[in-house]
What does this fold into?
Amino acid sequence: MTELALDANAERARGRTGRLIVYAIIGAIGLCLLFAPMLFPDVRSQEVAARICIFIVLVASYDLLIGYTGIVSFAHTMFFGLGAYGTAIALKMMGPGWDAILLGGALGIIVSLVLAALVGLLSLRVKAIFFAMVTLAAASVMAVMASQFSDFTGGEDGIIYKVPKLFSPATKLLTDEDGKVLRIFGAKANGKMAAYYFVFFGSLILYFLMLRIVASPLGTVLEAIRENEMRAEALGYKVVLYRTAIFCIAAVIAACAGILRAVWLKYTGPETSLSFAIMIDILLMVVIGGMGTMTGAIIGATLMSLAQFYLKDLMALASEATAGMPLLPELLAPDRWLLWLGILFILLVYFFPAGIVGTLNKKGGHS
Amino acid sequence: MDSTSNLFERFGGINLLPVLLAIVAFALIGSPSTWVTLTVAGLAMGMMIFLMASGLSLVFGLMDVLNFGHSAFVSFGAFIAASVLAALAAWVGADSIFLNLLAIFLAICAAALFGLVAGWAFERVIIKPVYRDHLRQILITMGALIVAEQLILAIWGGSPISVPRPNFLTGSLIIGDVSIELYRLFAFALGLAAYIALYMILNRTRVGLLVRAGVENREMVEALGFRIDRLFIGVFVLGSALAAIGGAMWAGYETLITAAIGSEMMIIVFIVIIIGGLGSIEGSLLGALMVGLMGNYVAFLAPKMALASNMILMMVILLWRPYGLRPAVK
It folds into this structure.
């Protein structure tokens, strides 16, 4: 008996170490992102940092669906794109101003909400598997429409526009005695930094909002639906309504992430906000990080974004090294990096369906 | 209202929907010769889509497995057929109908053979470990689709590939002021033959009986001592081969193919099986014909709405019948 108790203690301790590791990683990532302008002042790293912030929100909101509620949607980029395009079109037509961001963003969010409610009520009442197909079809139709109505959306070229003056790199936030831009630990306190912190704090607020949703009674009901739909229904919860509700919430958060993306990039096009490639990125991030964990979104988004930016360089090297061999150079070409990620994805779903965070947490955790 | 719905049922019920669609389109288009051309194109397209959709629908009906990677077979079929036709360029361009036929027959056979072998491997390696787990099925088959598309890009490159059509199928049949492309007739005939063969197998043979019984109630068939998992592999392999044939035909129809062909067709195939209802080939045929006709009519009337129109069609049908027109799965 004492042996058993000891075992259980050891297990719990191991589970705690796992969780501690996760929190340590999250803390490190959070600090890096918070001080990103000072730590990594070059332009490319700034892009990566902003991308990570936005994708953390996007991935976490997707995880509300796939991880917490157990519904598979392929329309998440559609809502992301609606938010981005709404902001972009408003900024283009009304000129750079906060009113344009507010109005365009609000329109994007409202359209997302209406579409999500429509798709949800229409297809969430039948088999869950139908839902995956319906959302996939809806998303691709939206992508095709965006490229066809090109007078409005800029088609394949997308839209380039100006953002409010506060965010332009020439703006001086703080100046020293000589009237030059003040440097904080080597980082210029200019508009670029303001834009980064707009993205960072916007993402942070959305992320905390999602943490709150997950911890609320709503979150518990969603997990109950995921575990046993029939039982949840029998307990008196209207499964369809709950599913539609979380689908709408996730859609709105995705649209907000789209607004952040549009403001940061000053450009919106199919490649950056609407393409199916982004949906695949989100899926990979969710699975790598761990489905059903909010912390997984942070780790997954960070790992994937870093890999995307720096793995390609590595693959270019490998491709050159194998130049003489048949087929191998093509397989290793930087453009083929999705191939390897796809294989990694399949292996992950087989062997570590819980992802990084899930695997670390579970190590003796409650099992 | 009751009498009209009775009348509707007596004349074939939902089977009349494609006909109704054609009649409405006739009124909107006005010119009969254009209408005939569009209708033939729509039927041919529908038949090719049917080839791609039927396997997916049966696989789902029989084993509750939804294969998002199904369209990988379509694109591989298309590219393999294109390569075979390119290799047999001399036969394809020859004046003899026999050599032409032999070339296209070989191309289709190569695609089908690939479908058989790859389908078997795909089922064993990708699908088998995740039976009865929808979430992981969707994820894994999606991953497989990504890998397949990237492999095509690595092997055949990113630029579009042109597909030569056999000499005797390049012309058009002209009746009065109506011109009909021969290739469309050929595609329609092939699709119809495949449908009849499938129908016969499912309704007239013992294996077909078991498949239908399995779709209806798998546990009962298993309890009666039949190895339904073996049956399932058979259906899966056959479905993959049909998808590859559909892809091969589609390559000849489009004449210019890119690696994106798979993901483009997947959307249409999904719309078709949702409209038709999962698990029945009759439903797939009905859905495929409607989508084919709708696509061609709308592409003529309002070109920008072609894909969206099919989406709207699907939405309307889902509102009317949440499980599709003729579902075999409950």
